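request received
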Amino acid sequence: MSLPAPRRVGLLARWETTPFHLICAGTVAAFLVAFLIVPVATVVFVAFWDGQSLTLVHFADFFRTSLMIEATWNSIYVALMAVVVATIIAVPLAYFTVRFRFKGAALIQTLGVIPLVMPPFVGAVAMQLVYGRNGSVNLLLMDWFGFRLPFMEGLNGVIFVQGLHYFPFILLNLSAALANIDSAMEESAQNLGASGWTLFSKIVFPLAMPGYIAGAALVFAKVFDDLATPLLLNVNNMLAPQAYLRITSVGLADPMGYVISTILVVLSVVAVWLSLLSLKNRDFATTQRGGGGLSKRELRLWEKIGAYAFIAVALILALSPHFGILMLSLATVWSFSVIPDAFTFAHYITVFRDAGGMMANTVLYCGIAALIDVVLGTMIAYLVLRTKLPFRQLIDQIAMAAVAVPGLVLGIGILRVYFDVKLPFSGESLATFWVMLAIAYAVRRLPYALRSCTAALQQLHRSLEEAAECLGGDKSVVMRKIVVPLMAGGILAGFVTSFATAAVELASTLLLVTRDASAPLSYGIYVYMQSAAGRGPGAALGVIAVVVVAIATWAAYRVAENDRARRAREGVAA
Amino acid sequence: MSAPGVEIDRVSFGYGSTKILDDVSLRVEKGEFFAFLGPSGSGKTTLLRLVAGFGVPNAGAVRVNGRDVTDVPPWKRNVGMVFQSYALWPHMTVAKNVAFGLERRNVSKAEIGKRVAAALDLVGLGAYGERRPAQLSGGQQQRVAVARTLVIEPDVLLLDEPLSNLDAKLRVEMRQEIRELQRKLGLTTIYVTHDQEEANAIADRIAVLDGGRIQQLGAPMDLYDRPANRFVAAFLGTANLIEGDLAADGSFRADGFALAGLAVSKPGKACVSFRPHDVTLSAEGRNLTGTIQHREFLGGNIRYVVTVGPHRVTVDTVHRRDFRVYEVGASVGLSIDAGQASVLY
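response:
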């Protein structure tokens, strides 16, 4: 008996896709192409283009310019040293939490969040007043011991500020890796005769290493790309500030800015890729179900004293940008003195009077950006997890790759591509139209929202959708009535995260904002901080931004937690 | 004659080179309670999902009440499916869950209210409409899932291992309830399970699946009494399968094993299959003897494993007070009721 002829199965059916999905995929693809791929590709292309043909001449110029060589080495040096500073703070803290049973662990958790709610550039100026040559700490040191420490001298300042800001990246990743090591792994090694240094070097260290590398690579990438902090500390002989200065002073046509941008993108992509790669290995290393972490023990008295002393120092350091900016925002005059001469609310009154527009702009831009992010994030998550559409993984990967694109580079790319596109009626350039800023934020924060949406959809049992389809709901009804409501927690968390982080994005803001009227809060902080008289109001704006980000971060965390609790309660139903 | 409720016509399905279903055909009559029975990976759930519209076969056709639905998406099929996990939507009340299908069919609000109440009454949950699924027990959630499916008056009811998340006692109660409900409504029903007892208890007819093919199709008792092959014999209940040679006179020989009086259709290499309770043990054997290898007391029965030459024969004996019990290691005689045995080729 011969088999019946095979059916012709339509492409859509084979991809488990409907026209509705194709519209989603088209929307996502168009957005990513227009605002991520084309701008970044243009930047790289211009770096290799002499007007007629591909060329390496701009790179040759770059490597012949001593300032550029110096900037490159400085950027690498700063990024590496920031990793070192972050490591010195993070590694002991991570070890304390997983190894010992003591109350300080909760403190360390808090320590891991404090720096993240304030972008480094906001605190940078305040840090100069605390740790600078004539800052509080050095004034005290000079008084008591007769010497100063060059915390904030030149590159040191960038290293110090960045290291303090980014150490949580290492702390969180390393703690997670250590917590994933099963005590049975350690015990079986002990059982087989390993202890002390052998145990650490053969078992604990190799298992924890991927987590450390993941964190360290991210820190490297973030510091290497960062424009705002060096700019505010007036350190210009690094790559990112050079690119910015070239583009803004020499002009959009200057190839050097593009060469630098290309270098920034490549290094950043490599570092993020390295980070993801090591996380992948970490998952692999812990496929066995663990009992959760190394065996913990009580601390002896002197160990406890040592641990708390270390935590206290770390806490003071981590809090000093926050404390500094708060003091600065309340200070009448703070110069050459340990603490300000007197305190006032005048700066807050000033910013509420003068900078209300900036706050409104931030809410508007970041609201739009976060909305775009969750809509696209939900679409991408759905396409990846629920269809067999070809290239769906590629869409996901491109969207995630935005995490490795520095704001500076995206800003330059958007300027280059859209500067000559004029809006109808007003004739304004599309690149500097305020909506473009919201779009740039959306591109940069898409990975956060996307991860959040993907996690939410992953937890949604597929039969919940199939049941609705059986009962007569087509794909768009199911999306509206079942998928989105059940993903609401994850979507909201993604929205808040995107909103909060976009609110303090400076690099792309600096490039795309041309008029004060359309400037957001982050731009305002930067502009105020440029003058000595503006520091007070700038700090006040910074405090407002930090409070907003802190509340939003806390809210996102609460939403995610409630969602998880609700899921646990309704586990039977889902 | 009217068209069958569901007709699966030479359906094959797979991804790339992996075949999940291989040329499967069957008819489920209108109002019939049909079961797909098979181990995990046999393709039974895939076949059920093809009836619901989740996936398109690579070859063949699926017809519901005579209508070819092979290319019709799930939401246009009017085929109701109850999922293993119940798939109740946690963000909606029980009543909202049940109303969903009616809302999609543009039924008027008043009518929806009436029909939802009737459906919930039908499953004995009339008072639970305003609860959330999470506030219900497993059995109640199951009933809501059934009510949600029945309320749309589907052409076919599909049940995918609906009882596997319930405890043993509730499982027996629910399967009786489902069967009574189905009989009352006269619904064409397909039930997927890996549990042969469940399939036997509930279904009019069963299709036994393995490796993506139908191994045998028939009424539960027929399958048990006359298995078509070794797989069906072993999968439905416990069977002793012994490979050997069958002579034209009805006598069967294998290494150290013999049985006479079998019905012969074709002499030669064959396999004889008999159930554990078709064997009687005695202290002294006449022609077939063995040694007790293992003994399990199961309450009403005692199960022995007896070695006969290289073969291991499972024997169930009824247990009553003062009945004889054999010790492990004892020599016993076996007599097998040849009239109950099946010959498989």
